[in-house]
Specification:
heterodimer, A: mainly alpha, B: 873 residues, six-stranded antiparallel sheet, 38 helices
Chain lengths: 198, 873
């Protein structure tokens, strides 16, 4: 837990604005701070020991945004950029978390997790997060943008409109990408590993 | 490769939009000669069909399910211990039952594992420092801290004496213990805490879960001092937003919650909360929810409910009334210094109560204290002076210093601390204890009467003693303030005016001999403003202006000489502001504008450092707001808009910087309202709507806000939406009206809603419009108000106008049958006549402000038009 003054919203805002002006240094400086914040929020939420917290789970990325960025000084484009970056970090955080647990479960034996679906007691098919991650990476090799849509929507919790802003496409395009990607991933995970032809 | 993928994708989308035969046909055609493609697309379509909720919700939402609880630590070794099983979970980590793994002792311990990420290194360092003290706590009611360290994997832990028992609240409820038995049990806990305090250990986290009672009825206090080891004060109360609190807010004292260090007084408070719950079964505060933010707000700002009110049965309430009320409320005081100074004293009063002896915490009445004090000091005037100076509270110290130099009163010196405490007690008790008592008014009046009597006596003897005179003047002023009181309490303006006048009399006399004395000038200015306010309230504008001008005269040179003195500057600007407001009321618009601009100038010309202070910025926002009002009256609407915008901008900044400040939050809303209302006057309803919406978002249950949003929507032609807002506002207003049937404001609010609803229904051509008009008309007619009371009458007149408009709209609809049309126009005429009658009468009485003078002629025109309509076939 740091008392790092760099986490003041002024700095992150500066970096975000800089990045928006295509100054990559802004992004580099911003990333660790954002990661730290998201990590903190996520691990708090995941630890399940917060009682009576008012934080909605889907709002983590937005929460980080509110805490780190001075909204008066940024516009919707900056926001879109921030959310985009935050979403991919959320993905990293959650996947790492899953991998950590998988390793510990098997007592250090980092075996590959089975790809089969696990039926939850409620009957809804749950998905192993790691399996999803693998499939997503394979999808990215075929079509970067579809993978990105999934990253933004599933890991980042962004809405269709927000995704449209980040990717600078229309909402309808996002919907289509999402529909296809979902089907592809479902098939990839549920199938015997071959998946649809690449 | 990618071509194939694209093909697949396009086909997928195309096919997905079709079904059954059409889909099959499409696939047939498109995949002719490429069966592999068809297989792929069909796979994807099938996948889509079966996917269900697959990744439909964001990852984090379901994440908790994916990560099942930490698998068992059981059997693992942590340091010299082996874990047997989990026995609980807390904010800091889990607690396990463990035994010594090295077979050295046959001891079972409670092992608390601290979560990673809690500053492990620092935690361990602090623990080592505290260990000596914590381990030395050897008391039958304290669970011993045995050990601490970190395991090989670096997991930090604490090992404590394992206590098998249940939390004290569960225990007492299960056994159905009586009030006496609960107190007796509690006294053991007090003993433990007192012992620890003697060893300079503060618990910091006392709550029922930390007080376990064993099967033989022995309470054991857990987790002593651990809170301190874990987080050394600084971040105790932070991180409220995500709820990452390590304290239990329901038991944390106000000062802990505000981030200050916990002291023995905080433990007293927490013990108070525990006992309160043991005796009443409830929390001392009415909590809106258990969310940390709400609990924190309750702890910091609301008063605990009297135990004798909180008890669940009449019998219990009777039992708790009196001593136990006082004892508990003393322990729960917001200011640490006003609680029991030690746990021993708290316990002492409890024992006295159980033994039937009088407790010490009962607040004394003024007479009792004063009487006793005087008797102790047989010294005539000197004694009266002591008492009086005690009354004056904060001025005691300076008065004493003067006194000491003048008279060698050895006994008086010893009494210094007593008097200070006495003074505080009297003033505080007066406010706190009396304020809440029913039937207190006669007591308060007697109090004030007596106190003023003392002051008068002393004033007679104060010649030549400048500092005493000053103190007395201040005392009179303070009594004036008390007499004015706040809105709900005692308001004796006549008495207050007399007190202020007396204060002024003395101050003026002092000024005559020493006109440059800064303090006297400031005091005199304050008294002038205070007296001026009362006089203004009585309608004597000339006199009020005079007072404010004198205040200004006293302050101007002082501000010029001391530009860094923010207090002076604020005082001066409020005098100028007052002059502006009174001028406006007197009709001197030019003068009002001058004064308000002067007020702004004084504030904005402050040195940069002063100008940045929140209080100054706030005052500037107030000044802009008043300037805007005057500009509106002067019909300079662009100017008014600009001023309102500036005011809003400042307040928005302030509330962003100080999100917890309720004053700023409320006043941002006010600023938005004013700006929006002014925008409405110039027809910029789009922006007005946006502002009203912001207000509604900030205060979603505000009925006034709903009405305003509806009004704006109506002006933008969005009548359906407007209607729904008016209806919601009406529902809320009905509720308020039911609770407060005589309330004029509630009635007017209902009327406004009904007026707007009927007009909107008419505009939308709804069939229930006439009924709504009738209802509104009836409401308006049913409100009786004093003829000289302009504001509500104007309101009613406006409502009649709305109803008249509505009837006209209904009448002019093509659908309306001729006979009905006639009736509606007749009804419109009726209400229009009423409206005009009110405006004419108000104008005749000179109660109509310049901006509204147009209303009379408008109402005449409406009437003429309706008349015309009624006459035509």
């Amino acid at each position: 837990m740091t008392d790092d003054p760099a986490t003041s919203s002024g700095d992150v805002t500066q970096w975000l604005l800089a990045w928006g002006r295509s100054d990559k240094q802004g992004l580099d400086q911003m990333l660790p701070v954002v990661y730290e914040e998201l990590h903190r929020l996520a691990s708090h939420y995941l630890s399940r020991e917060a009682t009576g917290h008012t934080l909605q789970p889907t709002a983590l990325v937005h929460e980080a945004y509110l805490r780190l960025v001075d909204q008066r000084r940024v516009d919707w484009r900056n926001r879109a950029q921030f959310l985009g970056v935050a979403a991919s970090m959320m993905r990293r955080i959650l996947v790492n978390h899953a991998r950590d647990r998988a390793v510990r479960k098997r007592g250090g034996n980092a075996e590959r997790v089975s790809l089969s679906l696990v039926e939850s007691p409620s009957g809804r098919p749950d998905v192993e997060l790691i399996a999803l991650e693998d499939a997503l990476q394979r999808l990215a090799a075929l079509d970067e943008r579809k993978s990105r849509v999934v990253e933004l929507k599933f890991f980042g919790g962004l809405t269709i409109e927000e995704i449209a802003e980040v990717l600078e496409v229309s909402g309808a395009t996002v919907e289509r990408e999402w529909a296809f990607a979902r089907a592809w991933l479902f098939d990839a995970i549920e199938g015997s590993g071959t998946g649809p032809a690449s | 490769m990618s071509d194939r993928f694209r093909q697949c994708e396009e086909l997928f989308h195309a096919a997905a939009a079709l079904s059954g035969d059409e889909r099959a046909e499409l696939l047939e055609t498109a995949c002719a000669g490429d069966p592999g493609l068809r297989v792929e697309v069909e796979r994807l379509l099938a996948a889509q069909a079966r996917a269900g909720d697959f990744i439909a919700s964001p990852a984090i939402a379901g994440a908790a399910d994916w990560f099942p609880p930490e698998e068992s630590w059981s059997g693992r070794r942590i340091g010299p211990y082996r874990i047997l099983k989990e026995i609980g979970r807390g904010g800091m980590g889990a607690v396990y039952l463990a035994e010594r793994a090295d077979g050295q002792y046959e001891q079972r311990v409670a092992l608390k594992l601290i979560k990673r990420g809690m500053d492990t290194e620092q935690v361990l360092a602090r623990f080592r420092a505290e260990r000596q003290i914590l381990a030395s706590l050897d008391h039958p009611n304290i669970a011993r801290l045995l050990d601490g360290g970190s395991s090989d994997e670096g997991v930090p832990f604490f090992a404590m004496e394992y206590i098998e028992g249940e939390p004290i609240d569960a225990y007492t409820d299960r056994l159905g213990l009586s009030v006496e038995d609960r107190i007796r049990l509690f006294l053991h806990v007090c003993g433990a805490v007192a012992y620890a305090h003697q060893h300079l250990v503060v618990h910091r986290d006392i709550k029922p879960l930390n007080i376990l009672v064993t099967s033989d009825g022995t309470p054991k206090l857990l987790d002593f001092g651990i809170a301190k080891v874990l987080h050394d004060g600084a971040d105790e109360a932070t991180s409220t937003v995500t709820g990452m609190r390590l304290l239990t807010p329901e038991y944390a004292s106000p000062e802990q919650v505000e981030g200050q260090h916990a002291t023995t007084a905080s433990d007293v408070y927490a013990l108070g909360v525990v006992l309160y719950e043991l005796l009443t079964g409830r929390s001392p505060y009415r909590l809106r929810s258990r969310a940390p933010l709400d609990v924190v707000a309750a702890v910091r700002t609301t008063d605990p409910e009297r135990p004798s009110v909180a008890g669940s049965t009449e019998k219990l309430r009777r039992r708790l009334r009196g001593d136990l009320d006082v004892i508990l409320l003393t322990a729960l005081r917001k200011e640490p210094a006003r609680r029991y100074p030690s746990v021993e004293q708290f316990a002492g009063d409890l024992r006295r109560h159980l033994d039937g002896l009088p407790v010490r915490a009962r607040p004394d009445t003024f007479r009792y204290r004063a009487g006793k004090f005087v008797r102790r000091n047989r010294g005539g005037v000197a004694a009266a002076t002591l008492v009086l100076l005690a009354l004056v509270g904060g001025t005691v110290a300076t008065a004493w210093q003067a006194r000491e130099a003048r008279a060698a009163q050895a006994r008086a010196e010893r009494r210094f601390a007593d008097v200070r405490r006495l003074a505080n007690a009297i003033l505080f008790d007066y406010h706190d204890a009396i304020k809440d008592l029913r039937g207190a008014r006669p007591v308060r009046e007697r109090l004030i009467h007596d106190a003023l009597g003392y002051l008068d006596t002393l004033a007679r003897e104060a010649h030549g003693d400048a500092s005493l005179q000053r103190e007395l003047a201040a005392a009179y002023k303070r009594w004036g303030d008390l007499q004015t009181g706040d809105a709900r309490n005692l308001a004796d303006n006549n008495g207050a005016a007399r007190s202020y006048a007396k204060a002024l009399g003395m101050l003026d006399a002092l000024l005559r001999s020493d006109s440059a004395n800064v303090q006297v000038r400031r005091d005199a200015a304050a008294a002038e403003l205070a007296l001026g306010k009362i006089v203004w309230g009585r309608g004597n504008l000339t006199a009020a202006l005079g007072h404010a001008e004198r205040a200004r005269g006293l302050l101007e040179p002082l501000v010029a000489a001391a530009p860094d003195d923010t207090g002076l500057r604020l005082q001066l600007s409020s005098a100028l502001d007052r002059l502006g407001e009174i001028s406006l009321e007197a009709g001197d618009i030019a003068g009002s504008l001058r004064y308000h601009r002067a007020a702004l100038e004084r504030l904005e010309s402050a040195p940069a450092a002063e100008r940045q202070r929140p209080l100054v910025r706030y005052q500037i926002s107030v000044a802009y707001g008043h300037l805007a009002d005057t500009q509106s009256e002067a019909d300079d609407l662009p100017g008014a808009l600009q001023s309102h915008r500036r005011s809003l901008a400042l307040r928005a900044e302030l509330t962003k910087e100080f999100p917890e400040n309720a004053t700023y939050a409320d006043n941002v809303m006010n600023a938005r309202y004013y700006l929006a209302a002014t925008l409405g006057k110039v027809g910029q309803w789009g922006e007005a709507l946006r502002l009203y919406r912001e207000n509604l978002a900030q205060s979603p249950t505000g009925s006034f806000g709903l009405c305003r949003v509806g009004e704006a929507l109506g002006h933008l032609g969005r009548h359906e939406e407007a209607l729904s807002h008016f209806r919601r506002a009406l529902t809320l207003h009905y509720r308020e009206l039911r609770a407060d049937t005589a309330g004029l404001i509630s009635k007017l609010a209902v009327l406004e809603d009904q007026g707007r609803i009927c007009k909107t229904l008419a505009t939308l051509g709804r069939t229930d419009a006439p009924a709504a008009c009738l209802q509104a008309s009836r409401s308006a007619r049913g409100i009786t108000v004093d003829s000289g009371y302009a504001f509500p009458r104007a309101f009613i007149a406006a409502a009649f106008t709305d109803v008249g408009d509505a009837y006209e709209i209904i009448a002019s609809r093509r659908r309306t049958v001729a006979t009905d049309r006639h009736e509606y126009l007749a009804a419109a005429l009726d209400v229009r006549r009423r409206s005009r009658a009110i405006w004419v009468d108000l104008t005749a009485r000179g109660l109509v402000s310049p901006v509204d003078t147009g209303r009379v002629s408008a109402s005449e025109r409406d009437l003429a038009r309706t008349d015309q309509l009624a006459r035509s076939p």
